[in-house]
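Sequence in, structure out. Go.
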Amino acid sequence: ARAENAVAFISNVHNGCQFRVLGAMSEKSAKQGHTYSASLSYNKKPLDFYLGYAQIESSKTSNGKAEAYVTGGSYDFDKFKVYTGYTVEKNSCRSCTGSLKMGSGIKDKGASEFHLINLGVRIPHGKATWIAQGVRILDKSDYAVGLGSRHSNWFAVGMEYRISKRTLFYSSIGTLDNKNGSSYGLGTGTSSATAG
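Output:
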């Protein structure tokens, strides 16, 4: 979502570390209120790491907020590179729309809440790079109707092939399990998990 009246600070890179902070006072938006975010990143081979937080408040005519905590990174072992991350998204914003819209079926004064744990690997081999990734989605939302666990497992494998400096061929295939009214889609992350 676009932040109105934003003021940001981005530090210089020092020994691979960089700090960013943003504040945005949304004065007249009917969809969202003030926005705040901060992050710390480290990038110095073979390791890179990221830690971040973001919060968007509801508009003045509503209540609640959407917030996310993110941490992750990668390590390059030369012959392959491993990625991992952990994300928490919690949303009680009643006025937010689009990608910030709260999941459906949430009880009054409740919130949608998702935890994502991911692990992936990239393995270069000649002009090709083989890719595999797994994600565990934990749905801890406050649903009005309890229909059982909506947790899900997501797994995909893929390949990139460099045909020329300007041309890259890629292909991937994946699978996930939806149950008890969840409606995740491949490549969409935490799409709304309906109550059914």
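Check: The first strand starts at residue 6 and ends at 10. DSSP finds no helices and ten strands in the chain.
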